[in-house]
Specification:
The strands form two sheets. This protein has a four-stranded antiparallel beta sheet with strand order 5-4-3-6. It has a two-stranded parallel ribbon with strand order 1-2. It folds into two domains: 228 residues, no CATH class; 138 residues, C8orf32 fold (Roll). The longest helix is centred in the first third of the chain and has 64 residues. Helix 3 packs across helix 4. It is built from 14 helices and six strands. It starts with a helix and ends with a strand. It has 379 residues and is α+β, with helices and mostly antiparallel strands.
Length: 379
């Protein structure tokens, strides 16, 4: 009974039960199919797994080789910024294209998925034919009788072990990605899972799953957050004439992208007043008053996200590349709170720089040194 306790069977852990069921079902299927059918299924499982692994490796190599070239091409020939009034489809397309240009992990993931789809389409039929040919010798094996069914049960058990191993690897990846997840603790209570993970998955995967996968997932989450912020390019696509005319007036006579960006920073930072009533309504009553750049421009009031969206709208009106950034801002009391600011692309320097129009009245927050000490990007 001590062995059963070690594997967590007595504790009625669902994970343990699921692993055992996978093996048991495969065992009974093997007995039913006999030696011939079970061997064929095992061969297909192994061949399919090898093809999948090969497709993943080839796709990853291809994506690594293509990603940087795609970024360079998009920078030089990418989709031009849509005109105000462009359709939602055009605006969405621009958001995706600019995301591919600016976000390396997002770009790699998209290219990888495309490459994987192509590789699987090209290799799928070939792999199927090879599997059919390779499995022909198994048709010579007996399919009936006690010996055949016993052999089929043994092969089915091996197939079930492979399936259970794959299931354990998926659970192991989940626990690595979400160490504080709602199911992580329960999964790790399964003694059978812990044994397979410790003896097989962890030695085989090394640091790939437990160390590198969470880092990659966190970085990918950050980039998806940045891509999500690009929705303002769609939401605020319609630029009212008064905002367009104001932006052109503010930047009149300015030739460089930096001088235009700086002029708009000073205008938004000095003309807009921080809306303390809006903050109190949200903090005390849970009421959030969403407002677009036109409302901020008309009322001359807003909070950080409103400053950032208005700045972005005015910058786009004079053909500047700009984005809204969210994260945490230093509160001056030793802590940090939710905040929003902007980044603008200086074509003269070929680089993105940060600026914070909300804080403009308190100092110089147009690309100051150590900007990141007081502003932490969303992660």
């Amino acid at each position: 009974m001590s062995g059963l306790n070690t594997w967590g069977i007595q504790g009625a852990n669902v994970v343990t039960a699921a692993l055992l069921v996978i093996v048991a079902v495969s065992l009974f299927q093997g007995i039913r199919r006999g030696a011939s059918g079970s061997a064929r299924h095992l061969f297909f499982f192994v061949a399919g797994s090898l093809v999948t692994i090969a497709a993943i490796v080839l796709s990853a190599l291809a994506a690594s080789a293509v990603s940087s070239r795609l970024q360079t091409w998009l920078t030089q020939h990418g989709m031009p910024r849509p005109e105000p009034g462009a359709s939602i489809v055009v605006q969405f397309g621009y958001t995706i294209v600019s995301g591919l240009r600016d976000l390396p992990l997002f770009r790699f993931a998209v290219v990888f998925l495309l490459c994987y789809t192509i590789v699987r389409l090209l290799t799928g039929l070939i792999a199927r034919l090879l599997a059919e040919v390779g499995s022909l010798p198994f048709t010579l094996m007996p399919s009936g009788g006690v010996v055949s069914r016993a052999a089929g049960g043994a092969i089915g058990t091996a197939l079930g072990a492979g399936r259970a191993l794959l299931f354990t690897a998926v659970l192991f990846g989940y626990c690595a990605l979400f160490p504080q997840g709602p199911l992580t603790g329960y999964i790790q209570q399964s003694g059978l899972y812990r044994e397979v993970a410790a003896q097989v998955i962890r030695p085989a995967a090394g640091s790939l799953i437990e160390q590198r996968l969470p880092v990659f997932a966190q970085a990918m989450s950050t980039e998806l957050g940045q891509l999500w912020l690009k929705r303002y390019d769609v939401i605020d696509a319609q630029l009212p004439d008064n905002i367009v005319q104001a932006a052109k007036s503010v930047t009149a006579g300015q030739q460089s992208s930096e001088s235009k960006a700086l002029a708009l920073y000073h205008w938004v930072g000095t003309r807009i007043t921080y809306d303390d009533d809006k903050v109190r309504a949200y903090e005390n009553q849970g009421q959030w008053r969403e407002q677009n750049p036109e409302q901020t421009f008309a009322t001359r009031k807003g909070v950080c996200i409103d400053y950032a969206r208005l700045y972005a709208a005015m910058a786009r009106a004079v053909n500047l590349d700009v984005r809204v950034v969210t994260g945490l801002g230093y509160d001056g009391r030793g802590g940090y709170g939710p905040h929003a600011w902007n980044e603008v692309y200086l074509a003269d320097r070929k680089q993105w720089i940060p600026l914070d129009p909300t804080w403009a009245k308190s100092g110089d927050w147009f690309n100051p040194p150590r900007f990141s000490d007081t502003h932490i990007r969303q992660a």
